[in-house]
Design a protein that fits this description.
two-stranded antiparallel ribbon, 236 residues, 6-stranded parallel β-sheet, Rossmann fold, elongated, 9 helices, alpha/beta
Length: 236
């Protein structure tokens, strides 16, 4: 049976809602940039940010089928355009951007109890998620998650994202995991289920109501009501 259970984060364990389009998000970022000495309007920063993200994606496609951006690098380049390039400042801007854009951040029901039960049963738990390490690591700690996991792999550190099989290979190689002993749990039929299929790993589709519109990708198991606790019914 499955010794290793690999989880997605957002939409699977964590119920999150962010608004990167709201101008108030960019006003908060602009205020911090003004403190650093940059003379840019919120609307200008917003445009520069999304252009910078697209530039990284285009560059990343030279290496990977599904490249991932690094938001810290995007903000670094914006600062550099103002002769203020500094990784520490770029990291602070990333944090300000995330805090200002976040409208909801909480665990789904039964997450901690289920993770504890799985650990007690001897399962090894891992995270493989399309996420920005610069703020996701803090959010995981805030929500009390890291202590349950044997390893965490976030896409921004590697420049590649789900559903690329390459991204799944990273966690398999890093923690010496056998595919036949792994199962992936995610809410997104495209990035999670297609990704697991691409990598040759069994999967559980946890239908939490997020990103469920790509029915062409078939999971090994389905939890149609999104009840996290029912993962135990599959793997124990």
């Amino acid at each position: 049976m499955y010794k290793n259970i690999i989880f997605d984060v957002y939409g699977t364990m964590v119920d999150v809602w962010t608004d990167e389009q709201d101008i108030q998000t960019w006003q908060a970022v602009a205020s911090l940039m003004d403190f650093y000495g940059a003379n840019l309007l919120p609307e200008q920063i917003k445009v520069m940010f999304f252009e910078g993200c697209q530039k990284q994606i285009v560059q990343g496609k030279k290496r990977y089928d599904y490249p991932e951006i690094d938001v810290v690098k995007v903000f670094y380049d914006i600062l550099e355009s103002q002769n203020l390039g500094c990784k520490t400042k770029a990291t602070f801007l990333t944090h300000a951007f995330r805090v200002a854009s976040t409208r909801k951040l909480q665990l789904f029901d039964n997450v901690l109890e289920t993770l504890a039960k799985l650990k007690k049963a001897g399962k090894k738990l891992y995270i493989l998620s399309n996420a920005q390490a610069s703020f996701t690591q803090f959010e995981l700690k805030k929500l009390g998650l890291p202590k349950y996991f044997n390893g965490i792999v976030l896409s921004s550190k590697y420049g590649v994202a789900k559903p690329s099989a390459t991204f799944f290979d990273i966690i398999l190689e890093k923690y010496h995991l056998e595919k036949s002993e792994c199962i992936y749990v995610g809410n997104d039929l495209h990035s999670d289920i297609l990704g697991a299929n691409n990598a040759g790993i069994h999967s559980i589709w946890l239908n939490t109501g997020h990103l469920q519109n790509d029915s062409g990708h078939t999971p090994t198991y389905t939890i149609d009501d999104g009840d996290f606790a029912k993962i135990c019914d599959v793997v124990l």
